[in-house]
TrEMBL record:
Superkingdom of origin organism: Bacteria
Protein name: Gram-negative porin family protein
Keywords: Cell outer membrane, Ion transport, Membrane, Porin, Signal, Transmembrane, Transmembrane beta strand, Transport
Keyword Ion transport: yes
Molecular functions (GO terms): porin activity
GO aspect biological process, one term: monoatomic ion transmembrane transport
Organism from which the protein derives: Collimonas pratensis
PANTHER family: MAJOR OUTER MEMBRANE PROTEIN P.IA (PTHR34501:SF9), PROTEIN YDDL-RELATED (PTHR34501)
């Protein structure tokens, strides 16, 4: 009877939630570099009009739950998969391709094990677009929004406005603890309308080396936001380095700067603006992205969004407003509009 009563009490203190988001719209990019059947550049460009999915935010479906274990301790889990609403396809082959973890939370903080977004995704808090397709990921070719497998993550409680999160993603290779491993830490301080954040992470290749600024590198991010009534200001700096890059002419350092603003014009309408600049070493060029956008809430769950922007490349840089890049040194304009519905 005591066991039955305990089980009944635990079930009463357990919650499971199904949640998700569907995001889709239309997308345009000018001056997309054209390729031949072998994937080689033809030297020509063309415009691209397409149905868009995930431009404002990832379409996803997830399951999350908690259980009160007593004494201030609770267990939790989260299973989440992203998909493309315009095609009905998943974003990757894994069943839960975004997050799948389990953990414990208590007065000493929280710990989780499983699959999660890599800690560099905390740049979301410093991005005036909220990590839309045109935002802090554009001029680093997605370096700051990867996922991570085999994660162990610890988050401290908040002390006088300070909070820290540490994460490691195990490489699981025999004979080396470094090969394929990623590590990072995120520090945040909040005081009224001020939030300051610092992130440092490393992503190693399968040989434990830093060989590509966009995929296997060291990354330092510092920045902050300040909210004054309806106005929120953003500023950030990112330094990426890949000291083991093989070719001496390939870039092994990238400096990235940005400023931005959100202004809540009405309870339903938010105006967005951002300016981003990136410079590569070894004469690999530089680029600037300028964008403006709007978020319009039809309800608490349904949002209309728009964004337009332009990228100005110099030298050998060929950054795009989104995934499809222009020719090196060429400019590109782009924009998207759509609907995002959460449940």
């Amino acid at each position: 009877m005591l066991i039955g009563a305990a089980c009944s009490q635990a079930q009463a203190q357990t919650s499971v939630t199904i949640y998700g988001r569907v995001d889709a719209g239309v997308d345009y990019q000018s001056s997309v570099a054209l390729k031949d059947a072998n994937g080689n550049l033809t030297g020509q460009t063309g415009s691209k009009l397409a149905a868009s999915g995930n431009q404002w935010g990832t379409s996803m479906i997830g399951f999350k739950g908690t259980e009160d274990l007593g004494g201030g301790l609770s267990a939790f889990f989260l299973l989440e998969s992203g998909f493309d609403a315009t095609k009905g396809t998943t974003n990757g082959s894994a069943l839960f391709n975004r997050r799948s973890y389990v953990g414990l939370n208590g007065s000493a903080g929280s710990i989780k094990f499983g699959k999660n977004l890599f800690i560099v995704n905390d740049i979301w808090y410093l991005d005036p677009t909220g990590q839309q397709f045109m935002g802090t990921a554009s001029l680093v070719k997605g370096r700051n929004w990867p996922g991570a497998n085999n994660v162990i993550e610890y988050q401290t409680p908040t002390w006088s406005g300070f909070n820290a999160t540490a994460q490691t993603s195990l490489g699981e290779q025999a004979g080396s603890t470094k090969n394929g491993r990623s590590d990072g830490i995120s520090l945040v301080y909040t005081n009224g309308g001020l939030e300051l954040r610092g992130i440092y992470d490393v992503i190693r290749d399968t040989n434990g080396r830093y060989t590509d600024v966009y995929s296997a590198s060291k990354d330092l991010i510092v920045g902050g936001t300040y909210t004054i009534d309806a106005l929120k200001l953003y500023a950030g700096y990112e330094n990426i380095s890949a000291p083991d890059t093989a070719a001496p002419t390939d870039p092994d350092k990238l400096n990235h700067y940005w400023i931005g603003v959100n202004y809540t014009l009405t309870p339903a309408l938010t105006l967005i603006g951002g300016a981003f600049h990136a410079k590569l070493n070894h004469d690999a060029g530089s680029a600037s992205l300028f964008m403006v956008g709007t978020n319009y809430n039809l309800s608490k769950r349904t949002l209309l969004y728009t964004a337009i922007g332009t990228v100005r490349n110099k030298g050998n840089a060929n950054f795009g407003t989104e995934f499809d890049n222009p020719l090196p040194g060429h400019a590109q304009n782009g924009g998207y509009a759509g609907i995002s519905h959460t449940f």
